[in-house]
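# nightly structure sweep
# worker-07 picked up a monomer target from the shared queue
# config: single-sequence mode, recycle default, output format = structure tokens
# input follows
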Amino acid sequence: MAHRPHAYGLTGEVQRKIKGKYDEKLEQGARLWIEAVLDMELVPGADQNTPLGERDFQGALKNGVILCRLMNAIKPGTIRKINENTMAFKMMENIESFLKAAQDYGCREIDLFQVVDLYERQNMTQVVNGIFALGRLTQKNGFQGPALGPKEADYNPRNFDEDTMKAGQTVIGLQAGSNRGASQSGMNFGKTRSILD
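# output follows
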């Protein structure tokens, strides 16, 4: 992990905001789901009822091996080569392989995280959110293992007939204001003000 000096100003404010959003309950849910799918402990000997915390959770996932195994458990054969090497670029390659496999599985890029978010612990909140996004999608794609979070909604288009569409064009949207209620009708502007005794 690269050494980053303490941030000041706007950068420091953004980093503090990101760190403040980290939720250990969500981390614990993601951790338990990963452990249930892989049938192994992320941190051997760690208490199941206590969250690992941002640093230890990142340490367990940093090399990307667990994430690659998770993807292969969800959809076998997705990631063919998992690097067990501890060299930095090999670990980042594992994370990148996981992210690409998750996108191919159906996760939207906006729901996932960047490699540096995990590897350099820049945004662990987004890492947890990415794991939850994958967990939601597994239910939709028919994964028979443990579930994480609510099932993602299916596409449900609405088809209206021509009369309904025309009727909708006559309605004034609330963003445009209203044609009912108090108004300034009957008021005149520009009259002189007269004071009478």
